[in-house]
UniProtKB/TrEMBL annotation:
Residues 36-93 are annotated as: Disordered. InterPro entries: ZBBX. Residues 82-93 have a biased composition (Polar residues). Residues 36-46 have a biased composition (Basic and acidic residues). PANTHER family: ZINC FINGER B-BOX DOMAIN-CONTAINING PROTEIN 1. It comes from the Eukaryota. This is ZBBX protein. It comes from Pampusana beccarii (Western bronze ground-dove).
């Protein structure tokens, strides 16, 4: 007999154990292996995601010169004036 074949049931008398069915033990071992495999796959995906995100972050830092910055007041360009006038005209109709 293997000591792993026994489990102490909660609420039972101290020291009382019940022998687990062999099928249940096999199922538990199989489930444990499946969970370990899934865990390894998820960790791999997480590392991949983290590396992709850090690479994209570096790319954004390099191209920050082309990034639009809000809150900067300045004279409107000719294209912006034409666009805003056409938008006003559309709303009047």
């Amino acid at each position: 007999m293997n000591i792993n074949d026994f489990v102490i049931l909660p609420g039972s008398k101290t020291g009382t154990s019940v022998r687990l069915k062999a099928k249940t033990v096999r199922e538990l071992k199989l489930e444990k292996e499946q969970l370990e495999t899934e865990n390894k796959e998820m960790e791999k995906k997480l590392r991949q995601l983290q590396s992709n995100m850090s690479r994209e972050k570096e790319e954004r830092k390099k191209s920050s010169a082309y990034r639009w910055k809000s809150g900067q007041a300045g004279p409107m360009t000719v294209q912006a004036r034409v666009f805003s006038q056409s938008k006003e005209n559309n709303s009047k109709v």
